[in-house]
Amino acid sequence: MTGEKFLVLGPGLSGYSAVKILKQFNYETIYLAGEGEAAGWPRYEQLLELLGENYLIHQDQAQATSFLANITVLVLSPGIARTHPLVAQAIKQGIQIWSEVELAYRHCQVPILAITGTNGKTTTCTLLAQALESAGKKVFLGGNIGTPLCDLIAHQDDFDYAVWELSSFQLESIDTFKPQLCALLNLAFNHGERYDNIEDYALSKLQILKNLDGVDQALVSEDFLVYDQRSFTQVLGNVDDLALYRSKYQEIEWDDFVMGHKHNQLNLYVVAWFLEQLNLSVAAINPVIREFRGVAHRLQKIETSQFLGDVFNDAKSTNWPATFSALKSIFREGRRLCLICGGQRRGVGDGLAPEQIDELIKWRPLILTIGEAGPFIKESLSKTPLEVHHCDNLKGAWNHLKETNFSGDILFSPAYPSFDQFNNYVARGEAFIKIFN
Q: Is the pTM for the entire model greater than 0.85?
């Protein structure tokens, strides 16, 4: 990429990581743009040392646009959409638009195993990384799971494989990116703040396949087939196909899986497929599944002495399909259940489908709502026999349960983003654990 001139848009964690890699490879022209004065950005001192003050741009529209004449590549942080005015202008001017995925890929020499989908990405990536390590491999785990992809490049000689969790945001602006193997787990509409419909959302996920030269490199959920008419030899079904999957990989000790809910068994099958494609022993996953306790904030059981039942932190849920998957996993016949849900409204895709409401009526949980979406959820369920209370926040939900002497299982699975009351889902989950512990 000799001669390329870069503007990195977004001074957050992935933007900072992108700048470090560009400096490592000695590109002469590297700008970084962000909102607000640069002195207020995180890691400002490090950025100042890397780039110098003249290359840190306050994202005033006119000022930032003027810099487009000086660059050939615009690198986007995941939170910045292609509809952003600066990005739209860059597209008009014929400037290359890359996500951090593309930038990291162009400098990566480690085989990449990529996973996307609506739900289950983090769990499946974590299981895969641990299974590879059980097989004696050194693994980098990054992407949407929290570690910037560009962090791999500086240390890539230390790894045999790179497991990348990729979101639709990260996949929107790839160009030549081609993983060695990839999986698309499932599809349910999400991110209504960014996409107008499920087709646009699905097509952004399907970008992961755009440069593959053979169908055997991908395991594709049947959910995506309506949006991609190619014929795939490896198609991933749903939990109804678990008996088939279990019989295919009989060397897996399925019944020893501590987190062996149906959706997690499906994730386990995906991991087995990766191991098989890499000619590694599928049995390498057995030591992992006996110890695996899930990932933080994803159906995480927490210790508490306040209630007679179990308490689960599923703060990572930002859509109704994820919440219903959690409900199905923990529901026990004859046992009282409380669902705490709510968060930031998105506008598109916020509502419950009629069949989801029917399932809630069948399970009859006590529903406590929080956040911006709380009143909306309560109103949407007002004509059902369900007991729904809006509690404003997690402390209010705790107080309601305490004051009513609730006895049973508790699931915090918000179904909405966290940004109305928290910086991210991690802060939301930690607040839940602190209050309920």
A: yes
